[in-house]
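Technical note accompanying the year-one report. For the benefit of new consortium partners, we illustrate the data format agreed upon in the data management plan: each record pairs a sequence with a structure-token string. No post-processing was applied to the example shown here.
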Amino acid sequence: MDNPQKILIVDDISLNCKLLYQLLKGMVVEIKMTYSGKDALEILDNDSEYDLILMDVQMPGMDGFVTVKQIKENESLKEIPVIFITAYYNTKEFIQAGYNLGAYDYITKPFDNEILKNKVKLFLTLQKQKKIIAEYAQKAEQYAKAQKLSSIGQLAAGIAHEINTPMQYIGDNNYFFKESFGKLKEYVQELENRLINPPESPFDKAEKELIKFKEEKEIDYLMKEIPIAMERTEDGINRVRNIISAMKKIAHPSGQQKTLSDINQAIEITSIITRNEWKYIADLELIPEPGLPPVKCLIDEINQVILNLIINSSHAIEEQVKKNIYAKGKITISTHSDSENVEIKISDNGCGIPSENLEKIFNPLFTTKDIGKGTGQGLAIALDIIENKHRGKINVESILEKGTTFTLLLPK
């Protein structure tokens, strides 16, 4: 059962407080009465969870206007609706002063009981709905973050594989370096011995002995292979570094402040993170516009959208590979800018989307994927991020068995 809503009545005349209390006590509400603006602020300082304040204007000491001004300056209290109750209601300036402070309405004394009750019911209902919306928005935000972590979690095995592969040949090359160093050391020591203690045998014989020793230690082979192994090791280290760097950037929350961000870099990072999802079934081509202007955005959320769309493309191509339509599909991601927007196009030649489903794909929980392949939330979250949080646009074009293109428009 929901907790009762709470009303605070503030009036310096106790009879008025009691009259209001008697009138409203039949509602499912919790009512608190106080007789001064100062006491009202102390009550609210200890408990900010009130749903409505009925405030007298003309009070000695701190009047209703001053009290409400302080309430509206407090971040934890400013959203509580206030209705002024007053007998002094005869000038436009007086009325406007109350509204300027943030009052929601006025009720004049002596008040009509039914009008008062109806207004109180209205504002309590609005406040309840406001709290429900705020709670839903908070849960939606939490779910979006959870979905992001879930997406990264689903990629975890692939990311581990992407790291493990270069680490494997880094390890193999390290073993090769240790073995090679031993042979080179023996060869250098042999040269030093021959310089310090020249052999008594004729020069031709000594030369042949040295050549034979060199061949036994595979010196020519090592001189050829060591630089190649070093280059491969460096490449492996760079690959691991790039994956870890991409993971840090894509997982790091950007907070609520939008910052100027490099969209081309974001796409490159996301393609690295998702590589194990597509590399066996598709080629991924990036066509970034050179000099693409930065976009003021929540970059980690844009990364999430791109990540979800790449994974969706991979799944669509996987369907075609399973049906032997082709051995490998293709994903293309391009960027473009005009005077108003930066455009991101993500295209694939996967299985496509049936026309009857195109209008449903952004609905929460709608999915045509097998169990374990998707939750039906990825595109709903993408729509919210692009259109609601960034005032952009997300469009989709698809031909069944031919492929799909998602176009993201982000305002500059």
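Partners are asked to follow this layout when depositing records. The chain has three domains: 5-111, 154-252, 253-412.
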